[in-house]
Amino acid sequence: MSMTNANKAVVLTSGGLDSAVTIALAMADGYECHCLILNYGQHHKIEIIRAQQVATNLQTASSLVLDVDLRTISRSALTTSIPIPKGRSIERIGQGIPSTYVPGRNTIFLSLALGWAESLGAATIFFGANVLDYAGYPDCRPEFVMAFNELSRLGTQQGIEGSPITVYAPLIQFTKAEIILKGIELGVPLGLTHSCYDPSPQDKPCGECDSCLLREKGFQEAGIPDPALEAR
User: Fold this and answer.
1) For residue 89, what are the contacts with CB-CB under 8 A and spacing of at least 6?
2) Which of 64, 77, 94, 143 has the lowest tally of Cβ within 10 angstroms?
3) pLDDT in tens, 89-116
């Protein structure tokens, strides 16, 4: 039998609000968290630094930056010269699949997390997917998480031996405001998080991309200022 630890978890960590709060939720539930940070060729590389800073601040068990360059296989505004959408209304952001969708990204990321989790003997993967704010992304839906859990059951030693690694997306039905308030409750360093898809050369948020606009809306609805904008 393979050795598993029910309290050990891998957390996909991007440096954004959702993944930071996901780490804190997992730790509050007693999990030993190992953060997997992916350098996939994204333009906004500052998120890798912020992800490491968040993991350090929250005192996770470990963090790993893995280089997986998707630029050669994935056509996306996040990895190519395709323009980042700017200035869209909240209604438009929720319609259709945006150009910032990276084909196969979450499937690849979760597969890598699954491999590391099984090597660590972890029983759980935490994933900060959120369907309400990111309705255009097909790989952030509950159906996708359910399907990946079936893959985990069928395609791993732990699954075959009766202890499959389970993917949890605890924020999947939260609004951005609810995520922010939960982060404050759990002491998450929200000022360290980064959401912008198209930051300036000084790594300041553009304030106009979909991710910036959704973040701004979330803080407005939560009724608090965004601490990350204080240094802007």
Assistant:
1) none
2) 143
3) 988 887 889 999 999 999 999 999 999 9
Q: Enumerate the domain spans of the chain.
A: 5-226
* DSSP character string of 207-227: S-BHHHHHHHHHHHHHTS--G
Report yes or no: 61 and 33 within 8 Å, Cβ to Cβ.
yes
Q: Give Cα separations from 201 to 35, 44, 101, 206, 212 (angstroms).
A: 27, 10, 23, 10, 16
For residue 158, CA distances in Å to 30, 71, 110, 115, 140 come to: 21, 32, 16, 11, 25
- How many CB atoms lie under 10 A from the CB of residue 82? 12
Token pair in block for residue 20? 């930071």
Q: Which fold has domain 5-226?
A: Rossmann fold (3.40.50)
| Residue 14 φ/ψ, nearest 5 degrees | -110, -15
